[in-house]
Write a structure and sequence with these properties.
Elements: E1 3-7, H1 23-32, E2 66-67, E3 70-71, E4 79-83
Antiparallel strand pairs: 1-4, 2-3
């Protein structure tokens, strides 16, 4: 069986409650302590022989995702690459 790396675009909203002086201060404080942890969990529908694991992830926050016809994200569709060294 072959091994593939699959890059999946994900869009997430995160709500953070902070005490701040104003809206700009609230934005800064919300971003200061924000962390993301990603893992693959097998559901009851998963193939028991599935050995999926998260090997790398990147994330960044944006003021906006789209402005006009410009998308600020790094990827907008799933990418699949066959791995040769496994």
């Amino acid at each position: 069986m072959k091994v593939y790396s699959v890059r999946i675009p994900v869009l997430v909203d995160v709500y953070v409650n902070v005490e701040a002086e104003d809206k700009e201060d609230a934005k800064q404080k919300a971003l200061e302590d924000l962390t993301v942890d990603v893992k693959c969990e097998k559901s009851s529908y998963s193939d028991p022989n599935n050995n999926s694991e998260v090997v790398h992830y990147e994330w960044e926050s944006h003021e906006r995702l789209v402005q006009g016809n410009f998308y600020y994200g790094s990827v907008n569709e799933i990418e699949v690459t066959e791995e040769e060294d496994f």
